Amino acid sequence: MRRERPTLDTVAQAAGVSKATVSKVLNGRGDVAAATRERVHEAIGSLGYVPSTGRRVHDTTPTVTVLFDAFVNLYSAQVLSGVVSAGNEQGVDVVVTHLAGSSALTPGWFRGLSAKGHHGLIVVTTEVRPDQVRACADAGLGLVAVDPVSIDPSTTDQLVSVSATNWSGGLQATEHLLGLGHRRIGFAGGPPASRPAQQRLHGHLAALSSRDVVLDDSLVLQVGFSHEDGRAMAGRLLDLADPPTAIVAGCDASALGVMEEARRRGLRLPEDLSIVGFDDTYAAAWTSPQLTTVRQPMREMGRVALRTLLGLAQGQRPETHHFELATTLIERSSTAPLR
């Protein structure tokens, strides 16, 4: 006599749970206790249950993909640390990848992720076009962007983003220097196309305006976020006939470049030049002098992105489409009162 094929009911009875719980485990839902999930897997294995797709279930651990535009910076490392930490708590596997440019995000690539059973995608500081947002949704994948380069108005209600309060951070950095008596304050910012870079610049300008400091356009540069960009912008600012006494950098990496260029010219830090960064990466406390910087909660941004993505995969509506986590000024020894 041929043995009857096991069903969801059979698995539920063997595991001592409801059919709904078995379905959640099979679909990789994160709202099932680890011990319950283990019992369901044991029942599936012992009964030889095969889902209706014909594929035997060996591993139903939820998987998400994290896509970076660049691995080689401390910002990315700290965001990833938050994603992985939240993934461990939720029983989720995290796959990290890097693609050469947003043009690689084709409909076929999204469908490939979906075919592998991935729940969704977290993109970090990577531009995502409206057609790519739609292609990701068409493939059945959730999508969350951390510090997106830009947000197209047509995707405002489709793309969930996580970032820091960049405008407030730019304001905090410049207000700190103004409070120390500086008025010739240079701004060595990120690329003009970057949304976070523009928000930080606007915060900087707002701080100057609040103190009635007349804006000198020669003190505002927007080039990039790298160490080399910081060095180049510092060179241009320090070559001015009336150079700045302080510089706000767009990120910690470019702030380190500013510091290197200032030292190369024989300037003492912070006696001759005060410097403020943005991020509060690990390197900020390793510099000499230690870098005053605006802390954005990068680990928590990664954690929020992972938890939000799991909610999207479960059909939940996000609390908001644009999460903004508060920044904090961290005062160290790279800034000092104007002499």
Automatic annotation (TrEMBL):
Keyword Transcription assigned to the entry: answer is: yes
SMART domains in the cross-refs: HTH_LACI (SM00354)
SUPFAM superfamilies named in the record: lambda repressor-like DNA-binding domains, Periplasmic binding protein-like I
Keywords per UniProt: DNA-binding, Transcription, Transcription regulation
A Pfam family this protein belongs to?
Peripla_BP_3
What InterPro entries does the entry give?
HTH_LacI, LacI/GalR-like_sensor, Lambda_DNA-bd_dom_sf, Peripla_BP_I
Domain HTH lacI-type, residue spans: 6-60
At the top level, the lineage of the source is: Bacteria
Q: Which organism is it from?
A: Jiangella alkaliphila
Entries under CDD domains matching the protein: HTH_LacI
Q: What is this protein called?
A: Transcriptional regulator, LacI family
Molecular-function GO term, any one: transcription cis-regulatory region binding
